[in-house]
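Listing S7. Sequence submitted for prediction.
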Amino acid sequence: MFGVTYVAVGCQEEDCRVVGYFTLANTSIPRQGLPEELLKGLPKYQSLPAFLLGRLAVDSRYHGKGIGELLISRCFEYCLVLSKCSGARYLIADVKPAAVTWYERYNFRIISGSQNPDSTKMFVDLQVVKSAIDHKVASAAALPH
């Protein structure tokens, strides 16, 4: 996978439009930006395989309607499936400062040493994502039907 863009389209009557999208690509993440507790048991390579969330955007007319959550959830699903083939352990993103809090809700953490004032480099460990999904599924299964 070099880079793939996934698009969410909304249709009302005969009017269809792009409501949001995200792009995934292969990349690597330098070890020195990651907390030591996350590096235990990983190979000693200078850079580790990862996925890059090149862009995630929602049309401003659809803000607050859950489209962003739907897109990030689908992104996580794809990353978990693809990581079985690629060995990637992390998803990284260059996040606009105004969106840092939104990404933190999905367990993204800031990578220290980011030099760009226009964006903040963040990452999420896909093992954390998998555990959260597994917990959510187990909780839903425990509910009475």
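Caption to Listing S7: primary sequence and predicted structure tokens for the chain studied. The chain has one domain: 3-139. Strands lie at 3-12, 15-30, 47-58, 90-95, 109-110, 120-125.
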